[in-house]
Design a protein that fits this description.
With 253 residues, the chain is mainly beta. It has helices at residues 2-16, 123-126; strands spanning 35-44, 48-49, 52-53, 64-73, 76-85, 91-101, 104-112, 127-136, 141-150, 164-174, 178-187, 207-221, 224-235, 240-252.
Length: 253
């Protein structure tokens, strides 16, 4: 089984490393030339984060609505994002402040997910503060590293764990048809904050948790953009498969 997992991960990683012929680098306008904004909302058949279903219902369908507001100026940006399960099994609010320049993106995100606790009371129990660094190459390959800065994130010994996640993602665009994205994500070392087995026990060492293949397209309808996507996600750490369908609407410049 482990041999098959590593073969699948290697195949997806190979896809992510394939150069895309004719891929154009971002223009100055696209790389933070002025004020930018967008308002969007997606409906997705399930919310999967790093290979784990956040509603923890065990069901194939657990519909979420995900509104988002994004504001940017010359590379600096602020994002407000929410996901809410239709059945009330999960809610989360994310606030992200970041800066993008020359392919690099550095951000700090506050994930708020415990609505039984007031926003700033017992912060570590109701929030997770994460730092993320990513780099997009001149071909459409993006490498990302994210580390927990503040949370209930400790080894059994009481030492800080600095739970982290590393990911490689490659997108190939078929002109006027659709985009195909392949993603490989893993816990680079023991991550007690988020990398767990089926019984909720902490997985030790390096673990692949997110092998993902997706297809998507954006449709322009008047002043709106309609993104549609279909993803297959496999988490080798817990041997779970997911199929996720998302449809949304976005407005912006």
């Amino acid at each position: 089984m482990k041999k098959r997992i590593y073969i699948l991960a290697a195949a997806l990683l190979a896809i992510t490393l394939m150069p895309a012929a004719g891929f154009a680098q971002q223009t100055d306008d696209e790389d933070g030339g002025g004020f930018e904004w967008s308002v969007s909302a997606d409906v997705t058949s399930n919310y999967i984060w790093r290979g784990y279903e956040q509603g923890d219902t065990g069901k194939f369908f657990n519909f979420n609505v995900q509104p988002c507001v994004w504001l940017g100026y010359k590379g600096l940006y602020l994002e407000l994002w929410n996901t809410t399960a239709f059945n009330g099994s999960y809610n989360e609010v994310d606030i992200t402040l970041g800066y993008s320049i020359a392919g690099f993106d550095l951000s700090v995100s506050d994930y708020y997910f415990d609505y039984d606790c007031r926003y700033f009371r017992n912060y570590k129990a109701s929030h997770s503060l994460n730092a993320t660094l990513s780099y997009e190459f001149s071909f459409p390959l993006t490498l990302t590293w994210s580390t927990v800065l503040v949370a209930d994130d400790y080894y059994e010994s009481g030492r800080r764990a600095w739970s982290s996640y590393v990911e490689a993602s490659y997108t190939h665009s078929f002109d006027r048809l659709f985009d195909v994205t392949a993603t490989v994500g893993a816990s680079p070392y023991t991550a007690p904050y988020w990398c767990l087995d089926r019984e909720g026990e902490v997985l030790q060492g390096f673990n692949f948790t997110n092998l993902e293949l997706g297809i998507g397209r954006e449709f322009e309808v008047g002043c709106a953009t309609i993104p549609v996507s279909l993803k297959y996600i496999y988490n080798p750490a817990i041997h779970r498969n997911y199929g996720v369908v998302s449809v949304g609407v976005a407005f912006g410049n």
